Amino acid sequence: MSIKLDQVVKVFGTQRVLDDVSLTIAEGEFFVVLGPSGCGKSTLLRLISGLEPLDGGRILINGREVAASGLHLAPEQRGVGVVFQSYALWPHMTVAGNVAFPLETAGRSRSEVTRRTEECLATVELTRFADRKPADLSGGQRQRVALARCLAQGASTILMDEPLANLDPHLRGAMEEELSAFHKASAATTLFITHDQREAMALADRIAILWDGRLLQADAPEVIYRRPRNRHVAGFIGQGSIVTVRVTAAEAGTAHVRLGKAGQDVACVADTQPGTAALLLRPEDIEACGDEGAQLCGRVERSVYRGGFHEADVAVEGLDAPLMVRLAGRPAAGERIGLRLRSGWLLPA
Ligand SMILES: Nc1ncnc2c1ncn2[C@@H]1O[C@H](COP(=O)(O)OP(=O)(O)OP(=O)(O)O)[C@@H](O)[C@H]1O
């Protein structure tokens, strides 16, 4: 089922927690909403699921209005499954009972309920906890029960609020793969909320960046990373440096810029004009080299070992911010380094 938000507004007290949010999630899409703590992610999910009324705009699920001025369909009338950060398990039921519950209420045969419950528990590696109560599980295990219940439900639209937040890293990776596989197999429209960009990149067909109640950009992960729409998105996703440059010419998505002593062609939006602009350089846009062939030279201000490479901030004369550069060997503090640029992205004005 598709989900459409049309100029959605949510107000708590005097705070506009969601401010004019419009987006469309296509049927079968894995759509991730990413943003810092408090930006409104959970509220967005609660509005879609029907747990919270909206204050403006409208929400459509599969073309049917489920929330609008004077209209608020109850959660059970919206046909969406929800996996919460807080699990929402039945405390009096066993793990297996929780997973079986949606199947039983859907009137499945006993043998099918048993089979499907076992499959879903195996998927989340909880088979041996089937007879425990939720209270006797760790937070991460409870989360996996909630996921298994959602898998069992077979909902065609699933909303997930940080479902992997409390898991160990190794289980997290495994659950990401499970989720991807489940998504491919079920083709369920999935709205997934997280503040973890690595997780968003790994799972999403498209990522929406929510910032202070506003939707800044919704695009494929590669586009969000390579062509962020503004500084907030550029700084929130991935790593890199933003420096002020002078655009001397621009045509058909390529701009020639001057930064310090260097000239470089970089990618830009079509209507870029000559003048001052902000250039995003990801670490892979910059190569360290000897003095010969260097476009820029700088001195290492700071470096950190990141496993496999050293990440250095290199101060370059004429630039208003240091460049983040990845180096194979550990640089000495103050070491002089030559740099070559490969490309960059001019942030839209
Ligand atoms: N019931 C409520 N009453 C008043 N304010 C609320 C309520 N629920 C949320 N808020 C406020 O709305 C803002 C957005 O909250 P929300 O839970 O949607 O953020 P979030 O992006 O999911 O954050 P986190 O990643 O920390 O879970 C926050 O400032 C929060 O304090």
**Structural class assignment:** alpha+beta
Task: Identify the bound ligands.
Answer: adenosine-5'-triphosphate
The CATH topology of the largest domain comes to Rossmann fold
CATH superfamily of the largest domain: P-loop containing nucleotide triphosphate hydrolases
Order of helices and strands: EEEHEEEEHHHEHEHEEHHEEEEEEEEEE
Shape: globular
Residues in helices, as a percent range: 10-25%
What does this protein structure show overall?
The chain is an alpha+beta fold and 349 residues long. It has 2 domains: 229 residues, P-loop containing nucleotide triphosphate hydrolases (Rossmann fold, 3-Layer(aba) Sandwich), CATH 3.40.50; 104 residues, Nucleic acid-binding proteins (OB fold (Dihydrolipoamide Acetyltransferase, E2P)), CATH 2.40.50. Strands 7-8-9-3-10-11 form a 6-stranded mixed beta sheet, with helices on both faces. The model has no long low-confidence stretch (mean pLDDT 91). Adenosine-5'-triphosphate binds next to helix 1.
Index terms:
Rossmann fold; ATP hydrolysis activity; OB fold (Dihydrolipoamide Acetyltransferase, E2P); 37% strand; nucleotide-binding; Transp-assoc_OB_typ2; binds adenosine-5'-triphosphate; ATP-binding cassette domain-containing protein; 21 strands; alpha+beta; transport; 349 residues
Task: Report a brief summary of the structure.
Residues 3-237 form the ABC transporter domain. This protein has 349 residues and is of the alpha+beta class.
SSE topology sketch:
Layout: E1 3-12, E2 15-25, E3 30-34, H1 41-49, E4 56-61, E5 64-68, E6 71-72, E7 81-83, H2 95-105, H3 110-123, H4 139-153, E8 157-161, H5 169-186, E9 189-194, H6 197-203, E10 206-211, E11 214-219, H7 221-226, H8 231-236, E12 241-251, E13 254-259, E14 262-267, E15 275-281, E16 286-289, E17 296-305, E18 310-316, E19 323-327, E20 336-341, E21 345-346
Parallel strand pairs: 3-9, 3-10, 7-8, 8-9
Antiparallel strand pairs: 1-2, 1-4, 4-5, 5-6, 10-11, 12-13, 12-15, 13-14, 15-21, 16-20, 17-18, 17-20, 18-19
Bound molecules: adenosine-5'-triphosphate.
